[in-house]
Amino acid sequence: MKQENHKSPQGEQLHLDVIIVGAGISGIGSAYHLQKNCPDKSFAILEMKDTFGGTWETHKYPGVRSDSDLYTFGYAFKPWVGNPIATGEEILSYMGEVIEENGLSSHIRYGHRITACRWSSSQNLWQLDVIHLSDGSLLQMSCKFLWMCQGYYDHENPYLPDWAGMDRYEGLLVHAQKWDPSVDYSGKRILVIGSGATAATVIPEFAKTAEHVTMLQRSPTYFYCDENRNELADRLRLIGIDEETIHRVVRADIIYQQYEMTQLAETDPDEMIRMLREQICSYVGEDFEFEPHFVPKYRPWQQRLAFCPGADIFKAAVDGALTVVTDTIDTFTETGVRTSSGEEIEADIIVAATGFNLKVMGGIPFEVDGEQVNWHDTVNYRGMMFTGVPNMTWVFGYFRASWTLRVDMLGDLISRLLNKMTEKGVERVEVSLRDEDRDMEILPWIGEDEFNPNYLMRDLDQLPSRGSKPEWRHNQDYWVEREQVPATDLDGAEFVYDGQRGGAKQDGNQRVA
């Protein structure tokens, strides 16, 4: 059934070929690829916030910055010209340039919250219930294809453990995700709970003007410490190479360096640990004491290896601006917290850098032909499509490499899939296990021994399942996927077009119910 595009009385287009959900780093990058590769497709980007940016708009804590280099976290199509580690403001500026340079602003619908997505096989359409947040009005929108780019965590409700005695504390207790930039912390005693990338970002900034900072951690974290500059990029600029070439060459060089580090972490983790420690010591001295507060319990790369420019958190510890306590919380008190070992930590401000709550597909209820979708019951195909859910893809980036590497890669693949549908003259595509997959072992989204941050392990049952075969999983190995994903055979038997398996003869024998 062909449905013409139509608009609301206010002029808003309510039916489109493609709706992209989210105007963060994934949504803006995906829109670029869609517009470039599928210029005939009408599309809109629905964003619940009143501006673009996603995670970079959500987080406003002091010193907010990337923990990946921008030569790889930036898009392949848009050269990055600043320092490798960028502030949140710089990243927002970069994204704004992408929107302006590519005319994407007119496609973004801010203040639109999707409350339900329903697929109709009789119409081959997604029907969306949408609230326009500015006035509370309800919209009914529809599209042929959904491109989900809203990330994987709850932007409104961060993870805050229910510690004993929290209501007794008389100071300011705030989760980093909820930080108010107007708070004056100069001259204050600050306690940061947590030891991940957020803690390592906010602590050096606090330490500049606070009376003192304490970091309370259950266990330490690995960091990669280096200067916030790229010698190769600086050299190429010095000799007059254009920025497009610099971006392409430096991006390739960093990707290869990351590949070598990943290989080292897997084959010789002890050597990897030695190298990471050596980097830290180059900034804070050979006699730096790693025991007991800087010896993580996990292997490198089992959790994200964040970039720590200039080893600034370690410098704060050596300079006396930071005290590190490795312990758990017994209870909050009126003036701070008491640890399980009995240590009293007094603080005027307590900042919980305790991570995210997972939120699959933005927490939006999905239905397919009247049946609610339970994502854990689906099996993912390359981490982007899901059995039993037609005409929908999800952009989920990398943990070990820069998130955006996968945005670019999937942007091209999804565009190619849309063009394949046009070429075939079909209105519906989904993935389905093949005959050879019927006895395949079905497993959790990711193995605990492969990648195990708390926010993922807490809610693993919310995520789709994976199969034991490479194509039925989200592979965290970019260096494998960079070959496999572009080579995806869209005529493969796992793809089902209008009920017909890809590669099947048009004799009706390979139709999928």
UniProtKB/TrEMBL annotation:
Transmembrane segments: none annotated. This is NAD(P)/FAD-dependent oxidoreductase. Its cofactor is FAD. It comes from Congregibacter brevis. Its EC number is 1.14.13.-. GO terms for molecular function: oxidoreductase activity. It comes from the Bacteria. The keyword Flavoprotein applies. Keywords: FAD, Flavoprotein, Monooxygenase, Oxidoreductase.
